[in-house]
Amino acid sequence: MTHNVNNWILLRQLVILSGEYSNWWPTNILSANGEEFLGYALPKTKKSATLHLASQICQVNHDKHIGPGKYHLFRLPQKMEENIFTELRSFISNDGTLTQEEVLSELRRLTGDISTETIKGPVLVGHNTELGDDSILKTFARHYYEAFKNNYSTFPYLN
Length: 159
What we know:
By secondary structure, this protein is mainly alpha-helical.
């Protein structure tokens, strides 16, 4: 389960960074000085706090486009969110020093080279009972990868 949770955390981080580079949301928390700023108030947890804050901003943005009651990358079932929150404290990955090209490369790696139909805006990709299956994570990654690569917005979600 930890491996799967870490992949969801990594996907969140990559989408947040790429979204900041592409101006999907009005923040530069991961790609700029957000961690340094939070380091003053939260020196021991600045990395996880930075990612958590950026995730909350993205959650609001996705909810606005998808609507209420839908699961998406930034709003997963409660137990999964709890696992992510717990694992986030020990999660170590690259930070905002990744370039936009490196972020895209990592996103592409997470897709596992699956193919999907590219759809702009909200797109239903499955049911929340499929969250334990790695193919859902790959599907999310592919939709975001294609969107960032081709300069359009997409919001994959689950029922």
